[in-house]
Amino acid sequence: MRALRHIAAPMLALGAYLAVAAATPLWTAALGAAFPGETRILYPDAAPLELVAQHLELVLISSAISIAVGLALGVFVTRPAGAGFYDVVNDLTNLGQTFPPVAVFTLAVPFLGFGLRPTVVALALYGILPVLRNTVAGLKGVPAEVLESATGMGMRSAERLLRVELPLAAPVIVAGIRVSVVVNVATATIGAIAGAGGFGAPIINGLVNLAPAVTLEGALLAAGLALVLDALLGGVEHTLASGRPSAV
Amino acid sequence: MISIRNVSKSYENAESAAVRDLSFDVPTGEVVVLIGPSGCGKSTTMRMVNRLVEPDAGTITIDGQDVREYRPEQLRRRIGYAIQGVGLFPHWTVAQNVAVVPGLLGWERDRIAERTTELLDLVGLEPDAYGGKYPHELSGGEAQRVGVARALAADPPVLLMDEPFGAVDPLTRDRLHVEFLAIQDRLKKTVLFVTHDMDEAVALGDRIVVMRDGMLVQQDTPERVLAYPADEFVASFVGTERALKRLSLAPVTEALAPVGLAEGCQCSVSATASLREALARILELGVPAIGVHDERHRLIGAVSVESIVERFKRPLT
Fold this sequence. Notes:
- The structure holds two protein chains of two kinds.
- Chain A has eleven helices and no strands.
- By secondary structure, chain A is mainly α.
- Chain A has a single domain (49-242), classed as MetI-like fold (Orthogonal Bundle), CATH 1.10.3720.10.
- The radius of gyration of chain A is 21 Å and the shape is flat.
- Chain B is of the alpha/beta class.
- Chain B folds into two domains: 2-246, Rossmann fold (3-Layer(aba) Sandwich); 251-313, CBS-domain (Roll), CATH 3.10.580.
- Helix content of chain B is 38%, strand content 22%.
- Chain B has helices spanning 42-49, 72-77, 94-98, 100-104, 109-122, 127-130, 140-152, 170-187, 198-204, 222-227, 232-238, 242-249, 275-285, 305-313; strands at residues 2-9, 19-26, 31-35, 57-62, 65-66, 79-83, 158-162, 190-195, 207-212, 215-220, 268-270, 289-293, 299-304.
- Classes of the chains: A mainly alpha, B alpha/beta.
- The interface between A and B is medium-sized, with 22 and 27 residues.
């Protein structure tokens, strides 16, 4: 039950967010009142809830890849066999984050076409670094005497990793996942350039058609989703950190 | 018996060898303390027994079986391991920590629970009160008790202990020593114990192996190491108070003089007291001699400063 304490409120917030997104008339009324005299109030091609679904698809797929790759690389470079690759991997992921995602789209489109796929590739690359960095920091933060006693008592390296190292590093790793996912929600708006839909679609539509209400619709939906996911992952992080003290 | 024969180990990038042609035994049921200054190779030596470090040359056997014949994990699950800093798993309770090796060995749940309770009792921690605590809720002394319980969990015949009582205050340390000796008296494990503290070595060891620069300098009983240090190095390492340390090893009965000596003094010490305690009482009371009584409080003799000096003139066998 302790686990639920920190997650219950963010789950309610997520429910509220989805309920508000589903209430299209509410958006028409609110944005209409905020921009009196505007004829273009809402994004015409998709309802707010559809935009949420498109955006979540982008974010969930790309973040899942970022997390899987970041975790795997983080574990690899902290093993004896992979220690030599630590600098190379670190440099590459740093580069991945400094490289603008827009440029990655543009370069990926000839190979992957328009739409979801180039967007996911760019977002996934962009999201690896925080996960990797925190995985490495979390694993390196496990006290040496804990590792020594795990090995000395006869744990195999896989047992040690799964039962001791990853659980102890978990709060730090989840903090990295949280940063990665939240940044991803904002970054994924540029997926609209490659025709991937999501909240970028109303933002760009409003920009092109000089319709600020439409841009605000996309921006509000994006900000709301970022806040909700941040709170949810913050709750997970908090649960792990409070239930399992990370140091003796 | 742990048998270490002609073992050598060099680390890369190190100027000299960590361990050079080292040989000694840890007889079954005895505590052998490996002692020396930091960097003398004592921890490396211990870690070669459970193959955390692989020797470059030489052989280590346990009960005649070469340790290289086992898979490292299998070997380590049969050897209790307690280290400085304890290294309890902070995300597990005390009970879960103690249960690690039985769990790795695939014991049944009931048997593990029973064993955990038994061990916490053995190290003087109330199982109901402590089993569910997390390591960060323990004091230093309690954590080290849990460390010992964890090392004993699967009832291994052999224990390796690397300064397991290192990080506590001297009082707690003395109490842990007494408890450790009581446990060892019952369980008769074969123990290789590493320390840099001569008092600890004298208190716990059946035998002491002194190391320096990766080599064995002297191996003998605590009593003889104190009485006959092999060279200047051992002499300086045992310290200027080695005579007093010897006193603490010898019971008063070894320097017993006739009862008449303590006439007029209403004081006496128990026959189980050490000469160190007797001398302390003599100095405290300002008397030439003090009586010695048996468990029924009958005077069986006396100890004087002269009788103590005489005792130390006799050569040790």
